[in-house]
Amino acid sequence: MPRLALYALAVCALAVVAAVVSFAQGSWLGVVWVLFAGLSSNMAWYYVKRGRTTS
C-alpha cells in the first residue's frame, strides 16, 4: 500500500474520532469532520488504486 494511502487512512480515522467527540459534546461541528472523513477516505482509495496500476 502506498505511503500516501496510509496517511490518508490515518487522517480519515482521526476525522471519524473527532466527529464522534464533537457529536458527543453536542456540537454540530461534527458534520464538518464527517465530510472531511469522506474526503480523506476517497483520497485513500484513489492512492491505493493508483498504486496498483503503476506497480
UniProtKB/TrEMBL annotation:
Highest taxon listed in the record's lineage: Bacteria
Transmembrane domains' residue ranges: 28-48
Assigned keywords, A-Z: Membrane, Transmembrane, Transmembrane helix
Keyword Transmembrane helix: yes
Protein name per the record: Secreted protein
Species whose genome carries this gene: Streptomyces roseoviridis
Taxonomic lineage: Bacteria, Bacillati, Actinomycetota, Actinomycetes, Kitasatosporales
